[in-house]
Amino acid sequence: MKIGIVCYASVGGSGIIATELGKALASRGHGVHILSSDMPVRLGPYQTGLSFHRVETPSYPLFREPQYLLSLANKIVQVARAEQLEIVHAHYAVPHATAANLARQVLASTPGGVVPRVVTTLHGTDITLIGADPSYSEIVAFGIQQSDGVTTVSESLKADTYRELDVACDVRVIPNFVDVNTYTRREVPGLKARLAPAGERLLIHISNFRPVKRATAVVDVFARVRRRVPSRLLMVGDGPDLPAAVRLANSLGVAGAVEFLGEQDLLAPLLSVADVFLLPSVQESFGLAALEAMACSVPVVASRAGGLPEVIEDGVTGFLHAPDDLEGMAGSAVRLLTDQAVHSAMAEASRSVARDRYTDDRIVPLYEQYYQEILGRGRAA
Ligand code: GMT
Q: What is the position in ligand 1's atom list of the atom closest to the CA of 286?
């Protein structure tokens, strides 16, 4: 198939999954074209069958705002025509579903031209935060409704979509996936000694430090853990709440035990030296970062929110608590750090779940089947 994938290039789960999907589809023989405003973080080196198309959004003195929706729709039209795309797969509804549907409309108005089918994958905040905002909701719902196929990354997000927006279309749940060969626990000589020189236990958090991730709650939970277990915290990523997390680490007197590492390309080595992953998000449609940790045999202590209970089994691969129960999260982390038997069982179960349910080999064919179904429906019509 000839497939266009539209995604954000910034660090965030939707762009990561879109890029990993593009790479996996190309290695399975499809012609894949990624459209984004910049090179997506996980694109990696050249791969046969995979190309990248930059969406340029020129500024003009009259415009106070960049016209990204228009330049993206325009780029989709151009790439679809040049490459005869059969599928345009929009990752994150805002505004990618709208741009893809607009492009399809333009292409349909050209006699004899190719008209791709539009698939939209909803990732989370495009529904739960941004999409449902009254400033966007009508257009987001329309973009979803007009798509030829719609997927969500969890059952929870599917329910949120029906609840938050006025959409009545069928929604297919296709969960996220992880490359378990890249994300696997490995020996990293000297790294643990460098990050935990006195043999402390290591907790880790990886995110884009947006308010929904509650980076300050991570520091708060860690401060409670450190009172009971000699430990250190790795904070990986960057975003609006980073300064608040640094301030809180200072005011709680744990700044010396917290390393703010910023954005990192290679996460598996850091996960390989970690003992517990903390994810106290307010809301999380899936929790790709948690799945990547699990693949590296790191048990997760997280919020019982959104799709996290679909990924993390409470008491088996980690512990779940109400988002505000920071003391409960600290208690679970302490249990993992002090009871080796519990930790080993959960580490092993975490790896097994990632390997048995969420590999690219298992999930990517679900997208291929879905594309075929949608193309088949188009032909029948
Ligand atoms: O994690 C983020 O805030 C980024 C956001 C995105 O769309 O880039 O992530 C969402 O999509 C990921 C991939 O499907 C999910 O794993 C995350 O759980 C989801 N984030 C939220 O729902 C807050």
A: 18
Q: How confident is the model at residue 379, as a pLDDT? A: 58
126 CA: nearest ligand 1 atom: 7
Both tokens assigned to 65: 């705002």
Question: Ligand 1: distance of its center to the CA of 246 in Å?
Answer: 23
Domains of the chain: 2-177+359-380 (3.40.50.2000), 191-357 (3.40.50.2000)
Q: Whose CA is nearest to atom 19 of ligand 1?
A: 124
Residue 363 has pLDDT above 90, yes or no: yes
Residue 92: how many CB atoms within 10 A of its CB? Answer: 26
Closest by Cα among 330, 316, 360, 78 to 223: 330
60-101 pLDDT, tens digit per residue, is: 889 888 999 999 999 999 999 999 999 999 999 999 999 999
Q: Whose CA is nearest to atom 12 of ligand 1?
A: 13
- Tell how far the Cα of 125 is from the centroid of ligand 1, in angstroms: 7
Pairing of strands 87-91, 117-122: parallel
Q: Quick check: CB of 293 below 6 Å from ligand 1?
A: no
Taking phi over 0 as left and psi of -120 to 50 as alpha, with beta for the rest, 315 belongs to left
pTM reported for the whole predicted model: 0.95
363 lines ligand 1 (CB under 6 A): no
Tens digit of pLDDT for each residue in 312-349? Answer: 999 999 999 999 999 999 999 999 999 999 999 999 99
In percent, how much of the chain has pLDDT > 90?
Answer: 91
- Bridge partners (DSSP) of residue 231 are 201
| Model pLDDT, residue 52 | 97
List phi, psi (to 5°) of 198.
-100, 20
